[in-house]
Amino acid sequence: MSSNNESIGKTLGVVIGLCLVCAVVVSAASVQLRPLQQANKIEDVQRNILAAAGFNDVTDVKATFGTNIESRVINMKTGDFVDVDPMSFDFEMTKFDDTRSIALSKADDIAGVQRMTNNSPVYLSKDENGNVASVILPIQGYGLWGVMFGFLALDSDGQTINAIQFYKHNETAGLGGEIQNPKWTATWAGKSLPIDIVKGTSDGDANKIDGLSGATLTSVGVDNTIDFWTGNTGFGPFLAKVRKGALN
Ligand SMILES: Cc1cc2nc3c(=O)[nH]c(=O)nc-3n(C[C@H](O)[C@H](O)[C@H](O)COP(=O)(O)O)c2cc1C
């Protein structure tokens, strides 16, 4: 014989109660963990900027970043430094704010970023004498499957590539995902802008990089990304000043 405890009403009550408790626990955990997730995101970006600047396997990211990297914000049109807190700058948010970004024409938008922000952060790594050793530029552009995010580190001459570092993308592991392979990224060091990623071998040409085999479309995406960000719609005006010795 069924007791009162086994009635449909009671069972539903227990299920709904349990659902409510779980929902409250999950929501509370999500709210509580948000600052930690934000801090981890910032640390990951800083770790990648440090890697682009040549600081690898860093244990204390915050301290190493604080000591060795200066974060600045520039006006993309003029290439001048502007007085904006780099920590307050969020490219993804700013990009969709009409007052702080502009829509790009199809012809200009070779990296598929849609809009360009009026300002952008840049990162300067200093040597032991306080001179700028590397200018690290945030870059992003379409590969085959989605947007690839990274950093391009240039020498203080604004021309020579020190490093390239991708930290987020949707390319296929073993194919386009090889953009993160240290063996491939090492081939960028010492090359000079403008860069052309070629199918096959670059034959030691200072302006050419070997394309990734089996990943021509991703390689084209990286090529377009570099052309875009080092060109006039990207960091071109800033790089023109860097090339005239604006940093040291
Ligand atoms: C499942 C799958 C995943 C692929 N992923 C990529 C990729 O991430 N990047 C890429 O350029 N090509 C990728 N390709 C290959 C492209 O379709 C295309 O064949 C290739 O870019 C041509 O490069 P290749 O001329 O160097 O062979 C993928 C193909 C398949 C079937």
From TrEMBL:
InterPro entries: FMN-bd, NqrC. It is an enzyme of class 7 (translocase). Its EC number is 7.2.1.1. Pfam families: FMN_bind. Residues 143-233 form the FMN-binding domain. It is a single-pass membrane protein. The keyword Membrane applies. The keyword Transmembrane applies. Its main location: membrane. One of its GO terms (molecular function) is oxidoreductase activity, acting on NAD(P)H, quinone or similar compound as acceptor. It is found in: Cell membrane. It catalyses: a ubiquinone + n Na(+)(in) + NADH + H(+) = a ubiquinol + n Na(+)(out) + NAD(+). GO terms for biological process: sodium ion transport. The modification FMN phosphoryl threonine is found at T216. Keywords: Cell inner membrane, Cell membrane, Flavoprotein, FMN, Ion transport, Membrane, NAD, Phosphoprotein, Sodium, Sodium transport, Translocase, Transmembrane, Transmembrane helix, Transport, Ubiquinone. GO terms for cellular component: plasma membrane. Its cofactor is FMN. Belongs to the NqrC family. NQR complex catalyzes the reduction of ubiquinone-1 to ubiquinol by two successive reactions, coupled with the transport of Na(+) ions from the cytoplasm to the periplasm. NqrA to NqrE are probably involved in the second step, the conversion of ubisemiquinone to ubiquinol. Composed of six subunits; NqrA, NqrB, NqrC, NqrD, NqrE and NqrF. This is Na(+)-translocating NADH-quinone reductase subunit C. The gene is nqrC.
